[in-house]
Amino acid sequence: MDSLQLLFDGFATALTPVNLLYALVGVTLGTLVGVLPGIGPAMTVALLLPITFNVPPASAFIMFAGIYYGGMYGGSTTSILLNTPGESSSMITALEGNKMARRGRAAQALATAAIGSFVAGTIATGLLVVAAPFVVDFAISFGPEDYFALAILAFTAVSSVLSRSVVRGLASLGIGLVIGLIGIDQQTGQARLTLGIPQLLDGIDVVVVAVGLFALGEVLYVASRLRHGHPEVIPVGRAFMGRSDWARSWKPWLRGTALGFPFGALPGGGAEIPTFLSYSVEKRLAKGREFGEGAIEGVAGPEAANNASAAGTLVPLLTLGLPTSATAAILLAAFQQYGLQPGPQLFDHNPALVWGMIASLFVGNAMLLVLNLPLAPVWARVLHIPRPYLYAGILLFAALGVYALNASWVDLVVLYVLGLIGFAMRRFGLPLAPAVIGLILGPMAEIQLRRALAIGAGDPAVLVTSPIAAVLLILSALILAAPLARRLLARRRQVDATA
Question: Where is the DUF112 domain (predicted)?
Answer without folding.
Answer: 20-437
